[in-house]
Specification:
- By secondary structure, the protein is an all-alpha fold.
- It has one domain.
- It contains 17 helices and two strands.
- Strands 1-2 form a two-stranded antiparallel sheet.
- The chain starts with a helix and ends with a helix.
Amino acid sequence: MKVFRQFYDLLYSAAVYHAKWDYEVSMNILKSKKRMFILLILAAIIPIIGLYVADAADIIGGKKAYAPSFYTTTVFLVSIAIGFCAGLITGCIGAGGGFIITPALMAAGVKGILAVGTDLFHIFAKAIMGSVLHKKMGNVNVKLAIYFLVGSILGASLGGFIQKTIYDKNPILSDAMVSIIYASLLGFLSWYGISDYIKKRKSGKQPAGHGGHGGHGGPAVPTATTVPGLAGKLQAINIPPMVKFDEDMVPGGRSISAFILAAGGFIVGLASAMMGVGGGFITFPMFVYVFGISTFTTVGTDIFQIVFTAGYGAITQYAIYGFVFYTLAMGMLLGSLLGIQIGALVTKVVSGLTIRMFWVITILAGFINRVTTLPKQFTEMGYISLPKGLIEGIEFVGNVVFWIVIAVFVFWVLSNFFKNIKALREG
């Protein structure tokens, strides 16, 4: 149980730090008139381009059909709504928004592989437009980043290959695989999240406020003078070439094998390409808790690598094969910019325990949504045999539960926002 608990802590920490990154890049876009102008131009042009492929012979729905079957204003508005909801979750809860996008797109009828590719491209677009890399160059360890990227590129290549191979074999199997991945991850997080919430409620202990994204922060962050047990063991493995880091933090610095860095990058790249969650999702806790790299070095290096990991995966593994729905990507980006700002403001007027409750509920809703699609998919592939009315009913219930939970969450956040708008303005 201790191992599972530590795994949960790392996953939650990953979600928290990814939310911090998401909030930072979103604010950088919102504060720049130039970047907002470019984004609005792209959002206006891309749907128009989509009209010219509307009558293409090969459209989504078949094994060779990747583009949307048709473009309507409704599709674009739905994508803005999904991005807005994900932004509210990220901004308010401080974690979890990235977990919801791919399941939400699939719940809205988008093919699994297209949802993954579109989500990954959306992360890449946000990373490029909102990057603050020029401000962070002083704490980017280029050697760490390069060896890590070697592994992440290999991992992203394998993940993209697996996704495309399974889709070419059977599109339904592809959807089922994405559903299983998300159901497993969200199920694990919701199970431990519920137990964590119950313990905190019984003890009366309030999780730390948002303050930018608080709550359960996972394991203690190592300092410049301490190295966690696992990190110490990994740093003791002397397999050349050894990469030095934290020379300014510790006399003589520390070092770790380039092969260990590449192995970590491989895991991140594989997860990124398989789930569409972006490289920064796992990188921060991996650097800090597994490799023992200081947060000072990690922040800049993580921002550096996420642009390349997400960009490589989105473009070379999905976009060039037609597995990116650009209209949806732009709509999600626009919606998330507004949602994340409102969500972050609401955390100033609600309790940390209430925020934790919504974290658990939204993750659980995503789990239910993905699990309830599996009976229909397994039946269509011939693995099981269930009545058509039953499997369609199960899927319908899963969809209804998911969208009701998201709608309630959005209503709760917006009602708190407007109810306290005067106090927020003064603050």
